[in-house]
Amino acid sequence: MKSIHIAIALVCMAIVLAVIIQPVRKEPHVGNEAGDTIILPEPRDSGEISVEEALLERRSIRNYKNEAMTLTEVSQLLWAAQGITHPGGYRTAPSAGALYPLEVYVVAGNVDGLRPGIYKYRPQGHELEKVAGGDVRADLCAAAIDQECVEDGAVVLVFAAVYERTTRKYGERGVRYVHMEVGHAAQNVHLQAVSLGLGTVVVGAFDDEEVGRLLQMQDDERALCIMPVGRV
Ligand SMILES: Cc1cc2nc3c(=O)[nH]c(=O)nc-3n(C[C@H](O)[C@H](O)[C@H](O)COP(=O)(O)O)c2cc1C
């Protein structure tokens, strides 16, 4: 009898220890306050279609269904845009001198697991930082000369650049490098969207200062490109 009690006690201790020492797992998390960190789901590294098929199918899509996207899809798009893919910090898109001048803002409107609001992608840690709450898609649409696709996307990615990160090393030539880089990143988002069965478009026509003010960008950040994304 005594040995049974000892065995039960040992099993209980083992369970308690297993719970205490298990590694801290990163769970997707819905943040509420400005400054909160939202850990994104792990991006996947395989898909349903080939690069060739994605290139063939890619089109600028401006009409989306009024359906929610998932946080996993948003995570995948952000990874495609600027995700870190190498221990040296290198990313999915090339960058002159590996100086990474781009910042990606996320304007969430209709995303399961992510409250409407403005977020900033942090490639290190593959996470979002909450900037502010509230659905600002209509205001962003107004700042983009009322292009309705901007309001209709379930989520809107906005690329900004800190030019100084690149011009500090390359001078004026760095400006052209930054513009090339946002093109690389935007095409990555385009191809990833095709692979996920989503639609997107590059929107370049907008009021730069209004977009910067609306998204509470830092003083040294300049808005470069808006990409609404939604189901097709
Ligand atoms: C730099 C740039 C800016 C663009 N700006 C807009 C825009 O403001 N609004 C829009 O509806 N499409 C915009 N587009 C998308 C183009 O209209 C589109 O790529 C073009 O019509 C070719 O169609 P496709 O992308 O389906 O091949 C832009 C594309 C680029 C590359």
Concise summary:
The protein is an alpha+beta fold. It has one domain (27-231): NADH Oxidase (3-Layer(aba) Sandwich). 38% of the residues lie in helices and 20% in strands.
Task: Give your account of this protein's structure.
The structure is a single chain. The protein has 232 residues and is an alpha+beta fold. The protein has one domain (27-231): NADH Oxidase. It has helices spanning 2-21, 51-57, 71-82, 137-143, 148-152, 164-170, 173-196, 208-214, and strands at 37-39, 69-70, 102-108, 111-112, 117-122, 127-133, 155-161, 198-200, 222-231. The longest helix has 24 residues, at 173-196. It is globular and about 45 Å long. It starts with a helix and ends with a strand. Flavin mononucleotide (FMN) binds next to loops. The site of flavin mononucleotide has 9 residues, from loops.
- Judging by the overall fold, what is the CATH architecture? 3-Layer(aba) Sandwich
Element-level helix/strand string = HEHEHEEEEHHEHHEHE
* Alpha carbon gyration radius: 21 Å
Give the overall pLDDT as a whole number.
Answer: 91
Number of helices: 8
Number of structural units classed as domains: 1
Secondary structure: helix percent:
25-40%
